[in-house]
Model the fold of this input.
Amino acid sequence: MLPIRKAFARYSPWLTVVAVYLVLGLAGRTVLWSRFGMEADVGASRLPYVLTAGCVNDLVESLYLFAPFALYILLVPDRWFRSTANRVILYGATAATITGLIYLTAAEYFFFEEFDARFNIVAYDYLAYPTEVFTDIWEAYPVLKVLGVAVTLAALAIFFLRRSIKPGFEHAVRFRERLVAFAPYAVVLSLAVAFYPTNALSLSSNRVENELLQNGQSSFFRAARTSDIDYEEYYASAKPADNLRLLRTELVPDGAQFTQLALGKMSRRHPARPDGLGKLNVVVVSSESFGAEFSKLHGSDKDWTPNFDSYAKRGLWFANTYASGTRTVRGLEAITASFPPIPTVSILRRPGNQGIGSWGKVMNELGYQSSFLYGGYGYFDDMNTFFAGNGFQVLDRTDIEKVRFENVWGVADEDLFDRAIQHFGEQYQAGKPFFSIIMTTSNHKPFTFRPGLEQLGIPAEGGGRQAGVRYADYALGYFLREAVRQPWFDNTIFVVVADHGARVYGKAEIPLEAYEIPLLIYSPKHIAARQIDTLMTQIDIAPTVLGLLGLSYEAPFFGIDSLHERPDHARIALFSHNHDVAILRDNQLVVLGLGKTHQSLTYDPLAKTFKPRADDAALRDLGVAYFQTAADLFKTNRYN
Done:
């Protein structure tokens, strides 16, 4: 055999693993397309491109993933490489690698089922909390079954592929010869590093199609690499003075006056309102994954939220409300700080998030007692650090003694609400008004609940999302019924809102339907029932409630008092999804992406569809003004 052929034969174990990787990618991509692609309008005519482009992406990613293996083959001395001990090690390592690849292929299916995407920033963020995440995975998914199948298939693969691996050990190959065979690989890898981004072939306007053809591991590493990046370097930007000018015009309609614009800050003075309700208590319930898609009042045929629907008819029901993002931290940052969802990471997860402008800071200055209650352990997503650093008393799982039921995410919502009522009673006795944000946890996989609720459609386990939503709604009704019996009820405003929808779905880059959430403001002694159809977002909640109270305050909030603005003002909504951010106005959407890209679309809210349109420069500039200014103020510690 010619030396060069021997050299290439030496790399046969590497080539075998790459081949397995490509086959798994093809199989996994086909399954994802049949399960999720077709329902997102990725038709059969697009499948050849999806599979071909996906194979190219998998091949490029294999250059990165298996580079250590290729280097091992290149650098290990010939005598050791062909030894029996090394053969055992390599066969074992190959079996373990194939097992891992099969397992990841299955894991990606379940991730896609939940998030309608490849491994992304959510997957990367969750690695910081292994106890909660891996316990949740263990309880919610067939981990051992999948692992057993993966081991079995890997063993079969090794058996049938042993002849493909064997040539690597048959011939003596000098280092110089191995280097010659390695050189083409090194060149191609270098070209991929320099010129081939993860989304190079993601050319479709259909987000799901782009997700299908991408490589999961590549998407994950991209998320890790860009989880905390400079806005101006990667996203469309403008001169800060121009941004402030646009924001000044945009935020004037609610009557507040800028006080530090010359310093480049967003602080605005909101005057007292003579028709305000005064220093009423304020309780905000942020309900986990409580999307509008489950509410009959919102037009759903599921009717899983009868308690919310009932109370919404007795209060201010905001029928056109959107979440800022798709994770709890996005909802909390919007509600607590009235802050736009700047790209990649929420401010709850960023350093420098203490002492910022927040609803808690405003309420404390007005003489309130502010608190944050969470049914789980508040170190998750840095909740304790964020809220304690912004003037909130924090009560989490460690402060809840009476527990009916709990799982890895925390105590049951009923137990959390019991602790809240106890806490509010203590604050009432202190003689000062109170302000509190309650973050629930029960509407989350593994969807396990206490026995005794089966007649309500809430089995102890196995009920899935329907049981989770029904339980969250049941617990909400329980809380409000218990609150009626308390001496502080008549002087309290209750705000009920979702932190985000249940899951992201749809083919759009910003799938707006998945962002629709319920919102009500309830205080039967003070607020008459009314339906509000104008656009409303989570960053508007704090200014709107403060407007109802009518108290004078100063804050740098980006949101607007939606009940006291000029009627001719066209409202905007801001969104984030993975690395993209977007602004919506009058059903016109502009998406801002990495690489300073932007896209203008027209949204049909009835059909839930988008159509490309000519560049909307005015809306694009306004979106840049919001996101760039917010990112800059936070980065320079001027959001205070």
The mean pLDDT is 94. The radius of gyration is 27 Å. DSSP finds 22 helices and 21 strands in the chain. Residues 137 and 452 are 25 Å apart (CA to CA).
